[in-house]
Write a structure and sequence with these properties.
Length: 494
C-alpha cells in the first residue's frame, strides 16, 4: 500500500484488521509527511519516538485480536489538550515549557483505544481567534490555495493546525475544540469534516479552559464516517468533569444508513445575512435540495434571537476566559518574567502576564474583567446570560415543533488571506456568526464540505442537531456528504 497517510480512519482500520498494513507503516508514512510539511506550520511539537512506540504496541494489540476502532490510527492532538510528559502550551508563551503530569480525559481515551499521537497541533493562543494567527508559534497555513493565486490562506481557527494537518494528509484525523466555532470553521476552510458534540459529551478535564460553559472537544476528520468513529472514542462520562453527561454513547457508525426519509430539516431565515457571497447562498440552497432529494422535508424556520448571538458570545466568552486565565501568574505553570531588584509579587504577576499573553488574549481578559466588574455586571454579563437563554429557547421551540436538524452555511466566506483580518478584531469576530449560536445553546453541530467557490476553495455547510442526538446528526451529515460528493484535494505546493 502506498500513501498510507492519505487513508481515512475507516480504511486504515479495515486494512489493519486484515493485516494489509501495520500501525508502524501508517505512522512512518505520516511522520514523513509531517517532515515534508514544515511550511504548513501545523505540527508544533512532534513526538516521533513516542508515536513509533505506541504504533508497535498497537500492532501487538491488533495481532492479539484486541483492536478497538482507533487502535493503530495516527492522529494529531491540538495543543490545548494536556498530554502527559509532552509540551502542552495552548499556543501561548505563558505556558512555555509546560509538560503536564497528566493526560486529558479525551486524549487519554484515544490513547487507551490504541490511537497513536504524532505530536501537538498549532492553534490560536488559548483558542481565541478564527485564523490561527494569534499563536505564539506563528500561524498555521491552509494547504489550499486559490486557483489563480499564490497568496497563503488561513486554515481558520482556532483549530487551524488540526484542520491543516488533516486536509494535507499529515495525519488521519485530529482532535479539535470548539468554543464558538473552532472545529467547524477551520473544517469548512479546509474541506474537512468537523463535529462539535453536545456540550457535556466530551470531558473537559485536562483541556486548557477558555470559556468553560461553551468549550467542547470533538473530532476533525476526512469523512463523516471517521467523525462517527473518532467521536465515539472521544466521548463518554467522566466523573472528573461535573458537566460531563452520564449518558451511553451509541455506535454512531452503525447509525450511518444514509436514510433520512421523513426527517425535517429547518432552514432558519435569520442566517441569510446581508452581504453574504452569492456562492454561499447558492450552496446553502443546493444543500437543502440534496437533503430534499434524499427524502427529507425542508421547512422554513425562524430563530429570532440569532442577531444577538455574536454580542452575547463576545461578552460571555471573555468573561469566563478572564476568570479561567487568572491562574497563569508565573507561579504554578510555565513562563515567569525575569524580575528586577526590588520587584515584589505584584510586579512578578504583572510582568509575567504582560510578557506571557499575546494581544488578543489581553483584549479578552480586559473585556472580560470589565463586563464582570461591579458597576457593569448587570448591564453586560447578566444581560448576556438572559439573551443566551432566549437563543437556546429559539432552538428548543423549533425542535419541539418537529424539526430534526437545521441546515446553515458554516462560514460567511471561504478561507481568507493570512494577515487580512488580523488588524481588525471585530472583522475577525464576524467569522463566527453561524457557529456561536450552537455553543451558546449547547447543541451538536457539524461542518461538512459541500462544494468549491469560484476560485476553487472549499466551502462547508453546517448541520445543527438536537441535544445528545449526534447519531442522527451524523447520519444526516452522511446523506449530505454522499449527495455533495466532495472529493477535491488541495494541490501539493508545500
Ligand atoms: N473564533 C472564536 C473566538 O475567537 C471561537 C474560538 C473557539 O471556538 N475556540 O472566540
Amino acid at each position: 500500500m502506498t500513501d498510507l497517510n492519505k487513508l481515512t480512519i475507516a480504511e486504515a482500520r479495515d486494512a489493519l484488521r486484515k493485516g494489509e498494513t501495520t500501525s508502524v507503516a501508517l505512522t512512518e508514512s505520516c511522520l514523513a509527511a509531517i517532515d515534508g510539511a514544515g511550511a504548513l506550520g501545523a505540527f508544533v511539537h512532534r513526538t516521533p519516538e513516542l508515536a513509533l512506540e505506541r504504533a508497535r504496541a498497537a500492532d501487538a494489540r491488533i495481532a492479539a485480536g484486541d483492536a478497538p476502532d482507533m487502535c493503530g490510527i495516527p492522529v494529531g492532538i491540538k495543543d490545548l489538550f494536556c498530554t502527559e510528559g509532552v509540551n502542552s502550551q495552548a499556543a501561548s508563551r505563558i505556558l512555555e515549557g509546560f509538560k503536564p503530569e497528566y493526560e486529558s480525559t479525551v486524549s487519554g481515551q484515544l490513547k487507551d483505544a490504541g490511537a497513536v499521537m504524532l505530536g501537538k497541533l498549532n492553534m490560536d493562543e488559548f483558542a481565541m481567534g478564527s485564523s490561527n494567527e494569534t499563536s505564539v508559534y506563528g500561524n498555521a497555513v491552509n494547504p489550499w490555495k486559490a486557483r489563480n493565486g499564490d497568496e497563503l490562506l488561513t486554515p481558520g481557527g482556532s483549530s487551524g493546525g488540526s484542520a491543516s494537518a488533516v486536509a494535507a494528509d499529515l495525519c488521519l484525523a485530529a482532535t479539535g475544540t470548539d468554543t464558538g466555532g473552532s472545529i467547524r470553521q477551520p473544517a469548512a476552510f479546509t474541506g474537512t469534516v468537523g463535529l462539535k458534540p453536545t456540550y457535556g459529551r466530551c470531558s473537559r478535564w485536562g483541556i486548557v479552559a477558555f470559556a468553560s460553559s461553551l468549550d467542547q472537544a470533538g473530532p476533525m476528520t476526512k469523512t463523516v464516517r471517521d467523525a462517527a468513529i473518532m467521536g465515539r472514542a472521544m466521548m463518554g462520562h467522566d466523573p472528573k468533569d461535573s458537566t460531563s453527561a452520564d449518558l451511553a454513547v451509541p455506535d454512531f457508525e452503525a447509525m450511518l444508513t444514509g436514510d433520512i426519509r421523513g426527517k425535517v430539516i429547518g432552514i432558519p431565515k435569520e442566517y441569510r445575512m446581508d452581504g453574504m457571497p452569492e456562492e454561499i447562498e447558492k450552496l446553502w440552497h443546493q444543500g437543502a435540495e440534496m437533503l430534499k432529494d434524499a427524502g427529507a422535508e425542508i421547512r422554513d424556520i425562524s430563530l429570532p434571537h440569532t442577531k444577538y448571538a455574536l454580542p452575547t458570545y463576545y461578552v460571555i466568552a471573555p468573561a469566563e476566559a478572564s476568570s479561567n486565565l487568572a491562574r497563569y501568574d508565573g507561579v504554578r505553570f510555565g513562563h515567569r518574567a525575569k524580575l528586577s531588584q526590588g520587584d515584589g509579587i505584584t510586579e512578578m504577576y504583572e510582568k509575567t502576564r504582560a510578557e506571557g499573553f499575546g494581544a488578543e488574549v489581553k483584549r479578552r481578559v480586559m473585556v472580560g474583567t470589565y463586563v464582570l466588574s461591579a458597576g457593569f455586571y448587570d448591564a453586560y454579563y447578566n444581560r448576556a446570560r438572559k439573551v443566551r437563554a432566549l437563543i437556546k429557547k429559539d432552538f428548543d421551540d423549533v425542535f419541539a415543533a418537529g424539526v430534526d436538524s437545521i441546515l446553515t452555511p458554516a462560514t460567511p466566506s471561504a478561507a481568507f488571506a493570512l494577515g487580512k483580518e488580523v488588524s481588525d478584531p471585530v472583522e475577525m469576530y464576524l467569522n463566527d456568526v453561524f457557529t456561536v449560536t450552537v455553543n451558546l445553546a449547547g447543541l451538536p453541530g457539524i461542518a461538512v464540505p459541500a462544494g468549491l467557490d469560484a476560485s476553487g476553495l472549499p466551502l462547508g455547510l453546517q448541520l445543527i442537531g438536537r441535544p445528545w442526538e449526534e447519531g442522527d446528526l451524523l447520519n444526516t451529515a452522511y446523506a449530505l456528504e454522499n449527495a455533495a460528493g466532495f472529493v477535491a484535494k488541495p494541490a501539493k505546493w508545500w
